[in-house]
Amino acid sequence: MSQVSPVSLLAERSCWTRSASARNVALMLRYALKRLISLMISLAVASVVIFAVIEVAPGDPASFMLGVNAQEDTLAALRAELGLDVSKVQRYFNWVGGMLVGEFGTSYTYRTPVAQMIADRLWVSLPLALYALALSTLIAFPAGIYAAARRGKAGDLTVMGATQLGIAVPNFWVAMMLVLIFAINLRWFNAGGFAGWDNGFWTGLHSLTLPAIALALPQAAILARVMRSSLLDILGEDFMRTARAKGLSRRQALWRHGVRNALIPVLTIIGLQFSFLLAGSIIIEQVFYLPGLGRLVFQAISARDLIVVESVVMLLVFAVITVNFLVDLAYAAVDPRLRGRT
Amino acid sequence: MNRNLILGATLSSLVVLAALVSFVWTPYEHAALNIPAKLQPPNAQHWFGTDHFGRDMFSMIMVGARTSIAVALVAVGIGVGFGVPLGLTAAARRGSWLDEVIMRGNDLVFAFPSLVIAILITAVFGAGAINAIIAIGIFNIPVFARITRGAALSLWEREFILAARVSGKGAARISLEHILPNVANLLIVQGTIQFSLGILAEAGLSYVGLGAQPPTPSWGRMLADAQTMVSFAPHLALIPGFAIIVTVLGLNLLGDGLRDWLDPRIRVARA
What we know:
- Chain A: InterPro entries: BPD_transp_1_N, MetI-like, MetI-like_sf.
- Chain A: This is Glutathione transport system permease protein GsiC.
- Chain A: It comes from Ruegeria meonggei.
- Chain A: It is found in: Cell membrane.
- The structure holds 2 protein chains of 2 kinds.
- By secondary structure, chain A is mainly α.
- Chain A has a domain at about 115-340: MetI-like (MetI-like fold, Orthogonal Bundle), CATH 1.10.3720.10.
- Chain A contains 12 helices and no strands.
- Chain A has helices at about 5-55, 60-65, 70-80, 90-100, 115-150, 155-170, 170-185, 200-235, 240-245, 250-290, 295-300, 305-335.
- The longest helix of chain A has about 50 residues, at about 5-55.
- Chain A is flat and about 85 Å long.
- By secondary structure, chain B is mostly helical.
- Chain B has one domain (about 5-20, about 65-270): Orthogonal Bundle (MetI-like fold), CATH 1.10.3720.
- Chain B has helices at about 5-25, 55-90, 95-110, 115-125, 130-155, 160-165, 170-205, 220-225, 235-260, 265-270.
- In chain B, helix 3 runs antiparallel to helix 5 (about 130-155).
- The interface between A and B is large, with 48 and 37 residues.
């Protein structure tokens, strides 16, 4: 009988582990590549759809800008300046090609680069969405964990009742009530407007606080429910019983094994919520008169500044598709079973 | 019967009843202006008070319920009408290119939140309740397609479907006669949830001016009008808000209750 030396066993095992992890990396890369191709196709189709819908709009932007009495040669010159004098296919590729290098065209009404207008407004909308996301997570996690740990008891019923109500409340109505209470009656915040980041980070954050709370509360209600049900699923697992059997207290088992495992589906929802928050901020900006993407797009609609509408919509869709892609990747990184699927 | 179902059904019926009664009776003509009686808080004559034109809020809420229900209901209809056949087809042809096209198409529509669709439609065709219906309806399609496909896929593996195939039925007939009845419960529950989301979405769209236009009364528009007057007439904002909350809460509870009631496993566990 030949003897197997421990060293060769170890070498064999490390070789096996290495090849397994290499296979894992390859699978992950393959999955990421597949999803990336799918992301590209989605973005391309979305851009065609958006462009096509906007193209259906009746009227010529040049004559809209110059009025009905404009001379034909002036109109032609403006059309050439705006890039409207080429075929629709050519215009589509100009638009998409421009966006790839950060050129969104020129606003029909303001005659300024759309990219600059969007960038300025993003400094309000993006921090608002992120602020709301942070708040919603901060509220939802403790609420969901508390409810799950006290399943069926008064605390659970109270949290569940509150979340049921939270889901039913429109965020812009919450915003109006916050203004009524904290701005008009208590005078802790301004009823609207944005102080700007130039006046300091905290001043800017202060003026985004009420809008962020209004956006966050309904989302927090959804997230707390997901957190609770995910945690309840985990608490029923065998490994939780094992954790208790090996001597961990209820609280220790909950935190060390329960919460950590329950986080996977919750993180997915958080990712998906970001796109809802970005879209939702468009409505909330109206309540607080914030100069964000929402205000920009509504002004553009009433001024028929279609290139701005087109670009903002594309940007929002890009954000949703990209966040979903990142969530899928993060999910696959955590759960290896998903990598095999398309 | 469970508590959620009873409470949800009661609240939802109340709102539907208010909308139906408004066709034949409202305490006052909802559009009648009465400037001397403007901005009255709730009182014996005007149960929900009056707005800045002296219009009776109770009558406006009743008529507004019609708009909310109509928009959300038709939007659910669009979602079911297109989404369910798509989901059934994808499941029947699972793994094929058709399935792939339908599901990727769904993913694409999912990337357009209803607000974004509404912005696009409004930019091109102008604002109106019809646009709100289309925008919310389009957003509902992938929801129903996914849920139908998901449920149908597991049904296709069951023995009674195999029996139907052996008896010579085609995929379309099996989908209609065997799959659809078995996913109906799920669709009813999802329909209730999408209905409540539709009410919220309609209110949001009308609030920003992308939905129902004046003089069509809508809860979202009432809130938009109330915004500048909330400091001295809070009832203008409170009452339409409560109307939305009661409706959405009622529908959500109804959805939860229906799910428990229609799911035989939970029913058996209860009994």
